[in-house]
Amino acid sequence: NDSNCNLWTCKIDQKLLGSQFNILDALGKAVLSGALNSEITTLEIGNLSGGVYLLNIGENLKQTFKVIKE
Prior knowledge:
The protein is mostly beta strands.
């Protein structure tokens, strides 16, 4: 089991510092949330099962990314 599969590293624009993030599963349920307090943030996702997730960042300048956990 490769431990790298349990971490996601996000590099964000400085204007998004302090933004809240949510990771949503395929059903739209938030499975992980928190704040992005540095330009490079590592998220621990070892407890998530494999599949496709959406990463939502920010409130006003909301950005959404599709992420896949193997």
